[in-house]
Amino acid sequence: METRVAARRSLPPLVAQLPFLLLILLTVSSCAAAATSDLVIGEDYVRPPARRHRKALLSLFPWRKKKASSSSSDPQQVHISLAGEKHVRVTWITDDNSVPSVVDYGIKAGTYTSTSQGESTSYSYLLYSSGKIHHVVLGPLEDNTVYYYRCGGQGPEFQFKTPPSQFPLSLAVVGDLGQTSWTTSTLNHIKQCEHDMLLLPGDLSYADYMQHLWDSFGKLVEPLASTRPWMVTEGNHEKEHIPFFESGFQSYNARWKMPYEESGSASNLYYSFEVAGAHIIMLGSYTDYDENSDQYAWLKADLAKIDRKRTPWLIVLLHAPWYNSNWAHQGEGDSMMTAMEPLLYAAHVDMIIAGHVHAYERAERVYNGRLDPCGAVHITIGDGGNREGLARRYRNPKPAWSVFREASFGHGELKILNSTHAHWTWHRNDDEEPVRTDDVWINSLAGTGCIQDSSRELRKILMAP
Ligand SMILES: *[C@@H]1O[C@H](CO)[C@@H](O)[C@H](O)[C@H]1NC(C)=O
Ligand SMILES: [Fe+2]
């Protein structure tokens, strides 16, 4: 069994997948459609020169991938995520199938006082077979504490810090990350900023059917993702659906398991979690969201559980933006917005953060297309640095709700100071330096008249069958 897996994995990935590439080209996939709609938007749209995946060429020569120094039982692509209150999930991959899914950990370097046992999975996709993907939940853990840990009972020591249980809370935010040299600058800038957790509103690796690129992405983000929880939701590039061959989301679901069970959801494609005084909902733009869908029913149930006294901040992430004045992907979020915006408005969501459009845009509080002091602040931050480049062309005149828009790569930081005040900044990658470019204080809706006004409306929506 193991030998077969090893043999299949050593096929040169491009050559092995050539017959399927043609099929993919013929398939109406959202990623092809998205790229095309970007390209035809107008004559004055200038896409910057594309940057390749950092390691794409190397992967054509699989014999060069072997590093003599690392053993097949060593942990690769280590990342962590929250897994319910006071728990963290550690995920890593080994080539060696005999490595146990255990994590030893403790609060002193080299001294492991606890051990957790977890589960493992793997997947096949076309001719590719993944390594052994381990998921181990640790806890209960202390808040705001550094833990040292070791994966699979051997190998190097890693460390992470758990988030605080109270404000202040610092969140790094980046979308549409990819794995180019633009991505590397963004990750370097995020590393320089103190943050408790990273939020990613979709489009992670841009592997786009080439499964070994999920592995190189995992390696690229490990230095950050093994030290702070990464909470992600899916974008169109996670789908990798091929009619009659692949059902979609195999790689994403296997590698980026999020706390959906812990939040009462039946799908890894949408879930919620709480951290300090924030309730954060990760929605799925690429699964059903209409009023009869499982996601909609789950969202209603999740919103009904929120206690704004305990979690005064309510933040939602999703991939395809609802308020976007860039020509790229114009209107793609509209049907989801029609289905879900009234529900989120009635629940007094403070912020809705999206990706997909490769640029940055911030909107005032808005609802139903109009400025509304009880609506959500919308942010589009699909500018992590993927290989497709920037979306530079905007609709004019600028809509009344759009406050700031710029087509540059960068990342955002949300520092929630207390139950009412948060400071949002967007940092552009300017000649490889992070430059704070947008800067605004955001007040939560908790404690404002908004909540009084529409609580009856929310109850009506939540109680509706
Ligand atoms: C929250 O922080 C802001 C900014 O520092 C401050 O002005 C405000 O008084 C604080 N509010 C509470 C409730 O502590
Ligand atoms: Fe996207």
Automatic annotation (TrEMBL):
InterPro entries: Calcineurin-like_PHP, Metallo-depent_PP-like, MPP_PAP, PAPs-like, PAPs_C, PAPs_N, Purple_acid_Pase-like_N
EC numbers for this chain: 3.1.3.2
Domain Purple acid phosphatase C-terminal: 376-432
Catalyzed reactions per annotation: a phosphate monoester + H2O = an alcohol + phosphate
Signal peptide: 1-33
Top-tier EC class: hydrolase
Keyword Nucleotidyltransferase: no
UniProtKB keywords: Glycoprotein, Hydrolase, Signal
Taxonomy, superkingdom: Eukaryota
A Pfam family annotated for this UniProt entry: Metallophos_C
Start and end residues of each Purple acid phosphatase N-terminal domain: 75-162
GO-annotated molecular function: acid phosphatase activity; metal ion binding
Record domain Calcineurin-like phosphoesterase: where: 171-360
Family membership noted in the UniProt record: Belongs to the metallophosphoesterase superfamily. Purple acid phosphatase family.
PANTHER family: ACID PHOSPHATASE RELATED, PURPLE ACID PHOSPHATASE 18
Annotated protein name in UniProt: Purple acid phosphatase
Encoding gene (name): ga12529
